[in-house]
């Protein structure tokens, strides 16, 4: 099973739900692995421990607000092991970012996720798990 989120979207942003992996900004003094653990807890309600880093995704987007500046972004993804918590138990302050969190079957996740780079991360996780049955 894989924990995914449906981000909150602006009204009129389209009818189709977007499913994505939890992610966020690295806080000052925080390592990317710590960010991954924190963001998963904040956005899904789950506590998890790291297994391995999967890879980075690099992309550019244009801000849709303010200065319309082009932003270069690097997102690091980690394979985490569920430890505790209940999916969807999201703090009220996070509900402005996350509409809901849900489990999807790992074998269906690449088909259900909305973003190509995240679909690739699912494939990497599957490959890792197949080559490391002890996990």
Top-tier CATH class: Alpha Beta
- Total number of strands: 4
Number of helices: 3
Low-confidence stretches: none
Spatial sequence of strands, sheet with the most strands: 1-4
Q: State the distance separating the first and last CA atoms.
A: 14 Å
CATH topology, by name, is Nucleoside Triphosphate Pyrophosphohydrolase
State the CATH architecture. Alpha-Beta Complex
Could you spell the SSE succession in H and E letters?
Answer: EHEEEHH
Q: CATH superfamily name?
A: Nucleoside Triphosphate Pyrophosphohydrolase
Overview of this protein structure:
The longest helix has 16 residues, at 116-131. The chain starts with a strand and ends with a helix. It has 135 residues and is α+β, with helices and mostly antiparallel strands. The protein is globular, with a radius of gyration of 15 Å. The chain contains 3 helices and 4 strands. The chain has one domain (2-131): Nucleoside Triphosphate Pyrophosphohydrolase, CATH 3.90.79. The strands form 2 sheets. The chain has a two-stranded antiparallel ribbon with strand order 1-4. Strand 2 and strand 3 (70-85) form a beta hairpin. The relative contact order is 0.24.
